[in-house]
Amino acid sequence: MPLQFELCPGRMIGGSHPCFIIAEIGQNHQGDIEIAKKMIKMAKDCGADCAKFQKSELEHKFSKRALERPYNSKHSWGKTYGEHKRHLEFSHEQYRELKKYANEIGIFLTASGMDEMAVEFLHELDVPFFKVASCDANNFPYLEKTAKKGRPMVVSSGMQSMETMRRVYQTVKQHNQNFTILQCTSAYPLDAEDVNLKVITEYQKEFPDIPIGYSGHERGIYISVAAVAMGAKVVERHVTLDKTWKGNDHEASLEPAELAELVRSVRLVETALGTPTKLMLPCEKTCHDKLGKSVVAKVAIPKGSVLSLDVFAVKVGEPKGIPPEEMQHLVGKKVRVDVEEDDSITAAMIE
């Protein structure tokens, strides 16, 4: 059984535990804390396990020139990229307010620490786990410092190779046993041909002692549900209140009805996965009683006859007789009574 661990207080992942569903609000809150709260509540109401944001200390994430460059996109919230990002960035005090609100309504809250100083703040904020964004999956000093803090980690793997992800696994594992790796392709929205769910299977082979998950940016929910059927123990999806809002991520996000349907579908698939033990179930009894077949006499069989395969047929009989899979065991045995043609052969008829 894959490793299981406590990702959030009282919430295990891995093994036979339910898939942990992260509603990635990111920066789809438009820089408005009231919208952010509505989105946290929406995530809770839709059945997600966790609402997640993206926290940056901008001067530590971006160079000065990167922040000063003009940003003329239709999605821009300012004339420069720095003005745009500052509009979308909540303060430390606002994060404390959001975490307090999430606690009050009963949903876990965390954020991707987009730089080392952001991780320091999130550690102080006492988030249940650290999310490592794909853009930091190959940032090994960052990974090592984050892992050493001892909180569980969820690591996305967009834009990375398997060789890099092996290094990620080794680096984190050296300092922290409680982490999961998510298959991810960093495109927004993501086309189906670039999803590569089969990487989940490869990760399960490469890293058999950690849970594996999926972070999706595709349209709709079907691919994410398929990931759970393939064994994903964590699913992360971007969410929005309105796909038409300004911002790069809204188009690849799920609106409330879609998120609710994703949660319902994931839980249904988990129920349907059931057990690997194959046997006739109690729910099949009605069908078996009506249509289950038995060994019957193909011809009349006199008392004392030695049975052979050529005297058997398989039909829906009344009463139920010996099941067809046991037919071979009857060969060479004798009947203790006369058996009429087309009668069911029962155990009581055999010596």
Task: Give a written overview of the molecule.
With 351 residues, the protein is an alpha/beta fold. Helix content is 35%, strand content 16%. The protein contains 13 helices and twelve strands. It has helices at 33-46, 58-61, 64-68, 81-88, 92-105, 116-125, 140-148, 162-173, 198-206, 222-229, 256-273, 285-291, 327-330, and strands at 5-8, 11-13, 20-26, 50-55, 108-113, 130-132, 153-156, 179-184, 212-216, 234-238, 294-297, 312-315. The strands form three sheets. It has an eight-stranded parallel β-sheet. A hairpin with a 2-residue loop joins β1 (5-8) and β2 (11-13). The longest helix is centred in the last third of the chain and has 18 residues, at 256-273. It is elongated. The mean pLDDT is 97.
Cα(first) to Cα(last) distance is 47 Å
**Quaternary organization:** single chain
Averaging pLDDT over every residue, what do you get? 97
Secondary structure tally: strands = 12
Q: Specify the overall morphology.
A: elongated
- The helical percent reads 25-40%
What ranges have pLDDT less than 50 throughout 5 or more consecutive residues?
A: none
- Radius of gyration, in angstroms, nearest whole number: 29 Å
Beta content comes to 15-25%
